[in-house]
Amino acid sequence: MPKPVITKKSLQADMRYLKLLARNFPTISSVTTEIINLEAILHLPKPTEHFLADLHGENEAFQHVLRNASGNIRRKVKELFGNTLREKEIRDLCTLIYYPKQKLELVRSTDTDLSDFYQTTLNQLIAVCRNVSSKYTRSKVRKSLPEEFAYIIEELLHESSDDRNKQAYVGVIIQTIIGTGRAEGFVVAICELIQRLAIDQLHILGDIFDRGPGAHLIMDTLSSYHHWDIQWGNHDILWMGAAAGNPLCIASVLRLSLRYANTQTLEEGYAINLLPLATFAMETYDADACTTYLPKIEDPSRRPDEKRCRLLAQMHKAVSVIQFKLECAAYHAHPEWNMLDRALLEHIDFATGECLIGDRRYALCDTDFPTVDPQHPAMLTQGEEELMRSLCHSFRISQHLQQHVEQLLQHGSIYGIYNSNLLFHASVPMNADGTFRSVHFADEQLAGRELLDRIEQIVRQAYDPEAEAERREWARDFFWYLWCGPNSPFFDKSKMATFERYLIADKETHREEKGAYYTLRNDAAVCDMIMDSFGVRGKHRHIINGHVPVRAACGENPIKADGRLMVIDGGFAKAYHDTTGIAGYTLVYHSRGFQLVQHAPFTSTQEAILHGTDIQSTTQIVEMMGHRAMVNDTDKGAALREQIADLERLLVAYRKNLLSL
User: Fold this and answer.
1) Residues 505-558: pLDDT tens digits?
2) What letter does residue 265 receive in the DSSP assignment?
């Protein structure tokens, strides 16, 4: 397509902007240099994107997948050395790249000729680093270099030992690194650089929190990661609501943590003081066996002793009863949610020990509620009120938690559109006929993209110090609806059957009917309609979701709607391994296409370091491009083309003497 003609009249209309642009590019030479630079970048291969979902606090597995780039680093090592290194040597080199400090410590204790090890290993690492850096400009690579070794690494990356004239030069650099005792630090630096350059952008499709013990550690890693985004999941929203001071969200965060005997994130990660809850629970439920509330232990290595289990069960019951009370109050305070039928504590007949749900009465599994007044079941006792004040204060003043929520707000959104891929955690509420469901709240009737955009505004409003106090409080309350409301895109089910699962044996009451989206997403025409409505364009466009574990063991395919939609929640959390038969999916999108990686359960970091064991992964080619994708084919390419067009206009303005040099 021919470029539009730049006229003097059009330039004069843009003169104010061109004068601002001229501050950064004050000469014809500086303008032409930047145009040449940007045009060159457009013709580099598309950088690699990495998609993960539903991490659920499994920090060790997350760290390993992040370090090995879902097998992308191993693939590059095999391409480089598959014909010259044995399988064990490839495995050892990969382990070194993933865990350089720990692996070097092991090497020091077993290898008798460290100088030879460093000589061989440094040459191999430089080759790998040169390969992963080849997609980027020198400028971008330079910005990624560790300051301590920046000059040396840059020299080695751009001087090939294959060149006879440079062999001695490269060789002397490596020998000098070893001779001056800097080899260990240099190896660590270049391994971490390989990890960084292997993936350009990390996409997290929600649910960092709950179940596993290391959500805070995952957030620590992400907070210093070079380029990442997150589409909030329902569990993230729950923790964001808790951090905002929503008592219901706080109660549910505590309940889930106690249900899975996981208090590390709360206590060690965020310094939440659980002593008031423990004291209240022991005093209130001292004579109660609390068998319904015994924690579920998925990982035997995390199993607490019997005394600890008993205390956790008491704390679990205490906070569960408080949650059921707070739910009743919230549903009465917000009739617009249409959830009064979920105020189930008020439907209990305490004389008979039965609960009325719909038009049927069900016997309760537990009828020992010493803090519940049958005449006013939703009323907190004085002790419960004091406890919740203490817990709310603890969440609000947790500096580490507030910092992490700030990161979620800064890097996150309810949905994202990147390089023709529409990313969101769970769903877009839909009707059975394939149209978007119109949802009424906050005096608005919204559907589809408009609904999601408005919900994101409300989430941010809860943290906006300039918002009116009343609006901020309403937004804070709304986190609970987002967690379990029928029309919430984070939930999209008929109900959250927490009360029934705890207190009613009949499993029919536990059923949570999924919204229409979860069936319709198998339909290619529906997926096309959704992408059209969100403005997703391109020949290779997709919807990518998490949230609902893919039951791979039962033959469920994560690729749906003729390849238009991919679900990458295969169950990172140990709680889902029996259900899914695997330990998660990740997705890699590089310049040649999409690869879906199916992971087996991760053993441990120690096992990986000692024996070079990797997560056993199966790679499925989802879609390969007809040609190698370049930066020009990406969102960044579109932005660069706009910059080039602006610079060309500035260049013409200089040459027509419309701007003084």
Assistant:
1) 999 999 999 999 999 999 999 999 999 999 999 888 999 999 877 776 567 788
2) I
What percent of the chain shows pLDDT beyond 90? 64
* Cα(602)–Cα(455) distance, integer angstroms: 36
Tokens 């000589």, residue located: 119
For the entire predicted model, the pTM comes to: 0.91
User: Using an 8 Å Cβ cutoff, are 292 and 365 in contact?
Assistant: yes
d(CA 575, CA 572) in angstroms, rounded, equals: 8
Alpha-carbon distance 322 to 377, whole Å?
Answer: 10
Contacts of 589 (CB under 8 A, 6+ apart): 48, 49, 50, 51, 419, 421, 595
For residues 515 and 563, what is the distance between their CA atoms, to the nearest angstrom?
A: 21
User: Taking the mean position of all CA atoms in its chain, how far away is CA 484?
Assistant: 20
Higher pLDDT, 374 or 16: 374
Report residue 153 as tokens.
């690494």
Q: Residue 514 forms beta bridges with which residues?
A: 493
Query: Would you call 113 exposed, middle or buried from its count of C-beta atoms within 10 A (0-12, 13-18, 19+)?
Result: exposed
Cα–Cα distance, 100 to 107 (Å, whole number) = 10
CB 573 within 8 A of CB 54: yes
Residue in this structure with the two tokens 């003497």, named with its chain if needed: 657
Q: Which two tokens stand for residue 613?
A: 């064991």
Checking if the pLDDT of 60 tops 60, the result is yes
HSE of 547, CA atoms in CB hemisphere, 13 A: 24
> Are 170 and 159 contacting, i.e. CB atoms less than 8 angstroms apart?
yes
Higher pLDDT, 331 or 547: 331
Q: Choose the most confident range, by mean pLDDT, from 104-108, 112-116, 189-193.
A: 189-193
